[in-house]
Write a structure and sequence with these properties.
nine-stranded mixed sheet, about 325 residues, about 25% strand, alpha/beta, UDP-N-acetylmuramoyl-L-alanine:D-glutamate ligase, about 30% helix, 13 strands
């Protein structure tokens, strides 16, 4: 009998090429640093660093970058047995400008979208306590249908769904199609994380955050968390009946903003699995995000789980 999982993260494992020097746009960037990336993979690694039992389902290309990425996630303690290699297809790569705010990026899509139903068998979908994915992963076929079907199976077996709604026009279908996909996923009661920028991209510039939150609740999400960088986090739960504002954890920024949201949500979900309430979960997430922002490069191989505790300073 396979051992239970805390989190099954499904989606993108890719190469981030991040600008060495601060810049507002890619056009201003001349030197890039290679590092493992992908929101789904980042979350898996961060949750494993926090002591979670985590597995990753993803697809990489049959180039030299695929084994390098697999070795990276395994080094953090993630079970990468379900990371597949797609023949005659390159590993997905993303160029990212180094910023302290929303990064300018361009995605060169490859193997990440090639997840097939055989990569997510029912037995695997029924194992975790949380099934997590991203809008990036849901943005292209065949991965979109594969993940939506697997999430429905997971939900039928009592697994909690999680979604990072990191939609951007550069990665996926038109806005209406993206909204429809998010709605289909949320109907199973998913916990949803959005950034302020995600709201503008998914619902349109000028959309009031409260309106976006209400819409996501109406789609079936019991809890919606909106991250706003240095302005902290707004969290709404019980279908919008309860809400709170969580201040950002003070931090001296030494690294790029890329990956801070993944660190936040990993901390949130791990605290949720520990039985903590929404406010304490968001506070834990803020602490983990601050650790990421204060680190130049990937986080250390392990993080003291005490950072998740409501008593942590």
């Amino acid at each position: 009998m396979p051992s239970p999982l805390d989190i099954l993260s499904v989606g993108e494992l890719l190469v981030d090429l991040i600008g060495e020097a601060p810049a507002d746009a890619l056009a201003e960037t001349t030197v890039f640093r290679k590092q493992p990336g992908g929101s789904a993979a980042n979350l898996a690694c961060n949750a494993a660093r926090l002591g979670g039992a985590v597995a990753l389902v993803a697809a990489v290309g049959d180039d030299s970058l695929g084994p390098w990425l697999r070795a990276h996630v395994e080094a953090t303690g993630v079970d990468a047995a379900a990371v597949t290699t797609v023949a005659q297809t390159p590993t997905t790569a993303v160029l990212v400008a180094r910023t302290t705010g929303t990064p300018d990026f361009t995605a060169y899509r490859g193997a990440d979208a090639e997840l097939e139903p055989a990569d997510l068998p029912n037995g695997l979908c029924q194992r975790p306590r949380i099934f997590h994915t991203t809008c990036f992963a849901l943005s292209r076929a065949p991965a979109r249908a594969t993940i939506l079907e697997a999430a429905a199976v997971a939900a039928q077996h009592g697994v909690t769904l999680s979604l990072d709604a990191n939609y951007a026009p550069a990665i996926g279908p038109d806005r209406a199609a993206a909204q429809y996909t998010v709605q289909r996923y949320c109907q199973h009661g998913a916990l949803v994380k959005l950034s302020a920028d995600d709201i503008a991209r998914l619902f349109g510039d000028g959309t009031a955050p409260n309106d976006a939150i209400a819409t996501v609740h109406s789609w079936g999400a019991p809890l919606v968390c909106v991250t706003r960088g240095g302005d902290g986090t707004h969290i709404s739960w019980e279908g919008g009946e309860q809400s709170a504002e969580i201040p950002a954890t003070p931090v001296t920024i030494r690294g790029e903003a890329t990956g801070a949201g993944d660190a936040f949500w990993a901390g949130f979900l791990m605290a949720h699995l520990n039985g903590q309430g929404p406010v304490d979960c968001a506070t834990a997430g803020s602490r983990v995000a601050a650790r990421k922002l204060s680190t130049d490069g990937p986080l250390p191989s392990s993080i003291d789980p005490a950072i998740l505790s409501a008593d942590s300073a």
